[in-house]
Design brief:
The chain has 304 residues and is an alpha+beta fold. It contains seven helices and 18 strands. Strand 6 (156-159) and strand 7 form a beta hairpin. The two termini are 57 Å apart.
Amino acid sequence: MQENYLAKWLNNELTEAELAEFKKSEAYASYQRILEAANTLEAPDFDMEEALLAVKNKRIFKDNTKVVQLAPFRMFLRVAAVVAVLLAGAYLYLNSLNESITTQYAENKQVVLPDNSEIVLNADSEISYSKKKWDKQRNVNLEGEAYFKVAKGKRFTVITEGGSVAVLGTQFNVENRRGFFEVTCYEGLVSVTFNGAETKLPAGTSFIAINGKMINSDAPETNLPSWMNQESSFKSIPLKYVIAEFERQHNIMVETQNVDTDQLFTGTFSNTDAHLALQSISIPSQIKFKFEGNKVLFYAENTP
């Protein structure tokens, strides 16, 4: 609902389209009941001529009490209704707020959820969840990459643009970047929903989709994702995703010249030593690199 719909609705200024959209909001019914109740109230009878006469004859008050001019009672009721609506809206808004945690480039962050589940966020990532509704619904929205250690309990769901992951209690890693979606299960069993199809992942297996297509993946070689050990590892992954991860881990912009960024890369680079990482990327890919100011240029060996 747009923020100005409430005021326009009270003044009967909404267009038909805006009114239809406003009526779909969860709070509309409450606002309507408040306004209807306010409209049924009537101001007490007030004889203006008699009051004026009383003032002239100085019979209203025999003392020096000040006379306060009263605004029309109906206007007061309308203002009261607006205040009640705003308070109700504020309550609904505050109860719908989500907790949000983000990381910047070259930053990791650990988060403990209300049920003591743990999340470690990789660089350039964000999670959000409803703290107030957590006991009823353990849902986490993820953009980027994170490692989850889920406490046993109700269904725990990680929601991303690429797909969703559901578990009861386990340890797993989820990465959702533009065109890249990967889930690796390290303990227990996870359920991955991708393009409407569900895949069960037991411990020691991974699910990878690139540009909307599933690809074969090998079993993880460690019991934690490599980035948690200050490294980034890849197995037959297009070079452009490797370069993007280097940018996130080192906060260094990368440009390429005459480089096939769709070529597959297998290898590992350091998340703490930028120069060593560049060598680890360039040598297997048979490309060169050089620093240009605060940027790095990858270029083919035969580039003039």
